[in-house]
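Weekly sync, protein design subgroup
Attendees: M.S., D.O., the rotation student, P.L. (late)

Item 1: inverse folding check
M.S. brought a backbone from last month's batch and wanted to see whether the design step gives back something sensible before we order anything. D.O. pointed out we never logged the input encoding, so this time it goes straight into the notes. Structure tokens as presented (166 positions):
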């Protein structure tokens, strides 16, 4: 019985996202002091603003007294493990599944490192439209968000024949 190559090599993309995320956070921590002070990049649209988020997306559960740190650590580990198993069962040629899964894994690990190291995720990308500001985010958040959108989009509109989960 021959086994077809699985999508685990796509974890190299996860590693790249983790590296870019951690390098960008290192830069933000060194260059964007004090926290909360906007540094305009494109005035009226994009700032670098250092922020710390002990919660999840959009500061969900940030008000907790510390228990949420371990909740999100366990959640990231469980979801990451499930996605790695999914990659292991996915054909390597099925990039429509492997690409988004590897992006989500990379983003989850990037933010997991912050939670373990500092009990909060370092964010610094601040998008605004006039007076309205979107939630401040980071490279790992981009990996998770773009990966999730691609997974849904490819699932809904990808069609047949790109490969399948084995």
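Designed sequence read out in the meeting:
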């Amino acid at each position: 019985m021959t086994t077809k190559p699985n999508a685990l090599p796509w974890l190299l993309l996860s590693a790249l996202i983790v590296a870019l995320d951690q390098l960008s956070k290192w830069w933000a921590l060194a260059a964007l002091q004090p926290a909360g002070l906007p540094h305009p990049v494109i005035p009226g649209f994009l700032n670098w603003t250092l922020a710390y988020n002990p919660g999840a997306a959009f500061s969900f559960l940030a008000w907790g007294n510390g228990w949420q740190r371990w909740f999100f650590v366990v959640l990231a580990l469980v979801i990451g493990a499930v996605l790695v198993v999914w990659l292991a069962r996915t054909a390597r040629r099925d990039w429509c599944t492997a690409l988004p899964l590897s992006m989500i894994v990379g983003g989850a690990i990037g933010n997991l490192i912050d939670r373990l190291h500092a009990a909060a995720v370092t964010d610094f990308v601040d998008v605004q439209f006039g007076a309205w500001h979107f939630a401040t985010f980071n490279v790992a958040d981009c990996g998770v968000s773009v990966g999730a959108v691609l997974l849904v989009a490819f699932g809904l509109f990808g069609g047949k024949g790109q490969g399948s989960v084995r």
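Discussion: The chain is about 50% helix and 15% strand. The mean pLDDT is 89.
Action: P.L. to compare against the previous round before Friday.
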